Amino acid sequence: MTHxxxxxxxxxxxxxxxxxLPEVLPAEEHxxxxxxxxxxxxxxxxxxxxxxxxxxxxxxxxxAGYVLSQGGSAGDALRALVVLLPLVFFALVLITGLAWLTxxxxxxxxxxxxxxxxxxxxxxxxxxxxxxxxxxxxxxxxRDGSGDIPITLVGGDRIAYLHLWPHARPWRYARPEPMLRCxxxxxxxxxxxxxxxxxxxxxxxxxxxxxxxxxxxxKLAGHGAAA
Length: 227
Prior knowledge:
Elements: E1 2-7, E2 31-35, H1 39-45, H2 49-69, H3 74-105, E3 107-111, E4 114-119, E5 123-130, E6 134-141, E7 147-153, H4 161-164, E8 179-183, H5 186-200, E9 218-222
Antiparallel strand pairs: 1-5, 2-3, 3-4, 4-5, 6-7, 6-9, 7-8
């Protein structure tokens, strides 16, 4: 398993000989699927924009309540909110913009031999994960059809969580798991990955068991389930 990084100059990702890949694939290797996170789903699930909206709403309500409790008028409370609203709006736009940039800069590629993750906004990092270094993969499907595909690495292989985030399975810090996050039509992508992994390792394909919402996903490939 290899990874590397390059600073971009000129047009974004001009250095890529193939979109999403750091080098031209060998003649006998073929791209099976390539895609990027859905930025709206990424904003909801990785950057927690809806939760932040509720948080800021609670802060504004508390501010207005405080002004009223101190004897202020409704006009005073409104003026106090008007002062804070631009800051709240800026924060939400900034975080949503980061989600969009993160999704725009990420390209996930599945070939018949490996997974390649090109991620990053300013500093681009590419992770090459050969199928032989994958112990298992899971699928967590969401109600909008998008989903997450976490990848369990073999043995002592490890990629730092901070290098991966937000393309990492949440809360797995000791043994970080790379994750194809908020992938559109995730069930079809997971099925394709499972079949390619099985062919590469000369093993029977494991059907993808999927779960809606926030529950754990089933095993797609390998010897252990990604829960």
